[in-house]
Amino acid sequence: MFRAALAAGFLLPAFGSFAGAQDLSLATVLIDGENWQLVADGYQFTEGPAVDQEGQVYFSDIPASRIYKIDLEGKVSLFADATANTNGLMFGPDGLLYGCRNGEKQIATYDSQAKVQIVADEVSSNDLVVLGDGGLYFSDPTGGRVWYVSPEHKKRIVAEGLRPNGVILWPDQGTLVITEAIEPVLWTFRVEPDGSLTGKDRYYGPLQMLPGSERTGADGMTVDAVGRLYVTTRVGLQMFDPIGRLGGTIARPHSGPLANVCFGGPNLDTLYVTAGDKVFKRRTQARGVRYAKTKANSP
Amino acid sequence: MRSCFSILCVAAWLLMLNDPARAADDYKIGPDSMVQDGVPQGTVTKHAWKSEKVFPGTERDYWVYVPKQYDGSQPAAVMVFQDGGGYVDAQRDFRATVVFDNLIHKHEMPATIGIFINPGVIPAAGPDQKPRQNRSFEYDSLGDQYARFLLEEILPEVGKQYKLTDDPERRAICGISSGGICAWTVAWERPDAFRKVLSHVGSFTNIRGGHVYPSLIRKTEQKPIRAFLQEGSNDLDNLHGSWPLANQEMAAALKFSKYDYRFEYGDGVHNGKHGGAILPESLRWLWRDDKATAALATP
């Protein structure tokens, strides 16, 4: 169906049908009768949900400097302690858990025993996305910039003059998306083979805002296999279609803030959101992605 | 009982035949949309444009139609088309250049240079990656970005080769679907530059916030815009809104605020058949009091 939608909406100037516009409402994602379920509660501030190869979801409790694991039965256990306020997390193609150890100004990996290896240092960071070739992008809201770390662990600034927070890639890793703090849009870039970013524009928008609010509160993001993008905001989890149009807002699981989101579970079909002191999950019709090696980023 | 049912079926069938809401959509082009003997034909040239400034990184094709009557002695009237590849195609619904040839020859519109522009694409950087389709972003977004693209990039480029008018009364803009709301947005943002709008099944819905125009038109001092809107009662009704209702709201708002407008509401669906069939009449109405044309018509 999605392919048909693309054909109808994209193949221009084919004036036959623009009905592809109809195809990516929330009804294509949500399941009747399914709602948010509480998975974990009683933390200080949850962030950085990340899925491993089995579908288990890890998350950070930033003020407590801890990382927890939610196993496939839903049991929560401590994975790492004294994490230097690790914030954003994501598993890399090497099976290591990459994290923003902002308390020590590091990007680091955690192995299965939670042993830390430094990937980049002397950088402030918030969130990251790891490519299929082991390179990564991370946001540096303090410095107002985005960094790229090559698979050889060489770091450099690839975008400046913005207020990045969440950072995510399209499933094919050819386009990078960054949240925007002021305007109700998301910044979008083309990913060049050397990691550079070009073609910057406000491709996704406008985001919904709470009445009377001047900020969307856009934070973490994830994408699904057909290219829909999900961004946590104050009004809820906003879903955008691949051509940047809002498809709809999934209601918040609680009245507090949402910080970040990922797909987890053995089928990668369950949204996990970190939300203040809690983590919630919700089964969907969509499937998340794991970034694979592409022709573009293979040497 | 059975005969009752049969009668009901026949009655329902008869009702269907007479139901004006059911799409007949049997619009046909007339002689003004067909090549006529003895009518001078303008030339069409194809060009490529890479935007560095307003839509950075986008690439697109555009076509320039120059009427036979253009001799460079006077600045020519200008008409811009979104999804240009469709409008310029002499085998499709609109056949705009054929209509231009015929109407210009009969002095029913000025000798107008047509600029037919496709939406931008940010090509994929890698071989197995997707391009970023910029059409919705460029056409559905409110604001002056697309107007600036025309005024700062395309018109100056075409103006290098042809003498184009800078009289806003002699600059028109046309589009279908999202290209239709784009045409309105360009004139709304820059009535100092464009004052004639032609919209075919325009997307005055909430794809990216365009549903607000009727209320803006009612509560904003009248702008010097002349608008022709074509719409069909069987047009789209989806997550973004109802196209028939949105266009009726536009027409009602234009009437309320005493705009120079015309609304052609047929029974078509989301295509260019009706708009194509009435393109000659639409252009005659839009250009009806062009002074240069009137001087030619009554020598």
The CATH topology of chain A comes to Neuraminidase
> Helical content of chain B, roughly?
25-40%
State the CATH architecture of chain A.
6 Propeller
- Biggest beta sheet attributes of chain A: 4 strands, antiparallel
Low-pLDDT windows of residues of chain B: 12-18
The whole-number mean of residue pLDDT values of chain B reads 93
Structural class of chain B: alpha/beta
Q: Quickly count the helices of chain B.
A: 11
User: Please, how many domains of chain A?
Assistant: 1
- The helix-strand sequence of chain A is HEEEEEEEEEEEEEEEEEEEEEEEE
Query: Could you spell the SSE succession of chain B in H and E letters?
Result: HEEEHHEEEHHEHEHEEEHEHHH
Spell out the blueprint of helices and strands.
The complex is a heterodimer of chains A (about 300) and B (about 300).
Chain A lengths: L1 H9 L26 E5 L4 E6 L5 E5 L4 E5 L5 E5 L5 E6 L5 E5 L4 E5 L5 E6 L6 E3 L5 E5 L4 E5 L5 E6 L6 E3 L5 E5 L6 E6 L5 E8 L16 E3 L5 E4 L3 E5 L5 E6 L8 E5 L5 E6 L2 E6 L16
Chain B lengths: L1 H17 L24 E8 L8 E8 L10 E5 L2 H5 L7 H10 L6 E6 L3 E2 L9 E2 L1 H6 L4 H15 L11 E6 L1 H12 L6 E5 L12 H6 L7 E7 L4 E2 L2 E2 H14 L3 E7 L6 H5 L1 H8 L4 H7 L2
Parallel strand pairs in B: 3-4, 3-7, 7-8, 8-9, 9-12
Antiparallel strand pairs in B: 1-2, 2-4, 5-6, 10-11
Architecture overview:
The complex is a heterodimer of chains A (299) and B (299). Chain A is mainly beta. Chain A has a four-stranded antiparallel sheet, with no helix packed on it. Chain A has a four-stranded antiparallel sheet with strand order 2-3-4-5, with no helix packed on it. Chain A has a four-stranded antiparallel sheet with strand order 6-7-8-9, with no helix packed on it. In chain B, strand 8, helix 7 and strand 9 form a beta-alpha-beta unit. In chain B, helix 3 crosses helix 10. The longest helix of chain B has 17 residues. The chains are: A mainly beta (299), B alpha/beta (299). At the A-B interface, strand 16, strand 17 and strand 21 of A face helix 2, strand 6 and helix 4 of B.
